[in-house]
Predict the structure.
Amino acid sequence: MTAYPLLNAIDSPADLRRLSRDQLATLANELRSFLLHSVSKTGGHLSSNLGTVELTIALHTVYHTPHDRIVWDVGHQTYPHKILTGRRDRMATLRQLGGLSGFPRRDESEYDTFGTAHSSTSISAALGMAIASQLKGEARKVVAVIGDGAMSAGMAFEALNNAGVPHAGAPANLLVVLNDNDMSISPPVGALNKYLARLISGKFYSAAREGAKQVLKNAPPLLELARRLEEHAKGMVVPGTIFEEFGFNYVGPIDGHDLDALIPTLENLRGKPGPQFLHVITKKGYGYKLAEADPIAYHGPGKFDPAQGLQKPATPPKPTFTQVFGQWLCDMAAADERLVGITPAMLEGSGMVEFQRRFPRRCFDVGIAEQHAVTFAGGLACEGLKPVVAIYSTFLQRGYDQMIHDIALQNLPVVFALDRAGIVGADGPTHCGAYDIAYVRCIPNMALLAPSDEDECRSALSTAFGRDQPVAVRYPRGAGVGAAVRPGFETWEWGRGLVRREGERIAILAFGTLLHPALAAAERLGATVADMRFVKPLDTQLVEALARTHEAFVTVEEGCLPGGAGAAVMEALQAAGLGHPVLALGLPDAFVEHGDPARLLAMLGLDAAGIERSIVERFGRGAARLAPVAAAGG
């Protein structure tokens, strides 16, 4: 007998709609068990998905997906959605090369209506879909499911502000579901809220409300008094006044794990026109006690045994770059009281937990608000402090205007610690830090450092902190080669790289951690290798010196080739009047898929074998001379 008899019969949401309420409750238990055991074998986001099982079932039961649209914010809460929309048998491939994405993708399923992985985009996208349906004359309902953390972003409130006004002649038929998993409700409050939600979302309440408006519309003072009394009465039991002010009909909060509360409320809301707002309370890790007790640890675990939970490895793993940054941050804060640390809702991911514990007054988690984080840092810098913004490379893209206008234009001394630079592996193209070299190096006053190992990372951060200008330091996810990290605050000579291996004929200029496969390739080819360290300012003296003794250059970087470090070298050679051929190796002009990082680098030709192969294909092997090039300098 199968362990999941109901779940195995669900091939699409249409199958859900044939089940009784009792069967749906049983299905929720099967789905949660399947999800736990599936993720334990593949790794992936767990706590957030355990918390959305009932909500997912209820939405697909009430809404006629895929005709009705559901947009999931961030997307790390969509594994139940994937399982119920025909992808159950592919969950074993989750986040693996060629397998299911860990986030919604339009090219993966018609039920994935919008690709999401950066937060706070769902309301904007869903509003666009709702307005499009109105303009096209289509009877379609649209739902945006957004988490409480994502509601801290300005973009979410921009969308709410826009959604509450009429478009195309009428208010948009849009439901925003706030999945609030940062609070809990006791049984009495939950029962009360269930009753209120059903009452407020029902036809009688709406009819009475609209009837009262008609009666009072000719007496504006009385209408305003009634509105204020209604807000006051609802405000005593529900925190919905702010959403009502945006033009939404607020319902909730209700228990997001209670199908008997969710389904009737959603049925009521589906039949109501205009913008609706449903506030549901869920618990991260729900149904798995270990994840409930520590939802952060189980947010994105690797493989584990559900019966045992997460276990500490027998031998401690190599320190990650993130941990090197976290230790440096604490050490530098102890040495310099001007240091303040800022992160946009990534305390754990950016390695700042210990810093927050030790220096709580100097640690600022601003929520999912990258634009604010950058300009906030600028304000701190104006008053003589030394801000360090810990942010993923892919998330700094969201604060790009602020980095240019508010930091670089004013030449403010802000350090940007760019974690997850380069390939990130299982999280895929939405989180791949492919573009920071290109988008930072084109900004005046900005500098960009690319350390090659853990020890260099600490030195690069110290070097950046000592500058009176904005500086970004990029480093990858995970561990490096395991270089011992020296204590203290050793700094680099500004704008200078160094030769790591003397060779002849070909000079390989390595930017960042790809130095090490470049060195391995150079051993087989007899090439020179330079650890460039600085993308900007580029060490043009070293480039020109190497040009005098070498016939060709190879640049290696874990970033996009258009506008990247290789392009910087070509620009420098051109400016110096040098015609040396340059082979630029890096990430292609395409989005890099999810998969094992080492395998992806090998597929892209950025491992030692790939670098060697590309050089041989372009320049040949051995002592054969290349075509003559212009001599460098005197």
Observations:
- The chain has three domains: 7-201+245-293, 321-474, 500-619.
- The chain is about 40% helix and 15% strand.
- Residues 21-42 form the longest helix (22 residues).
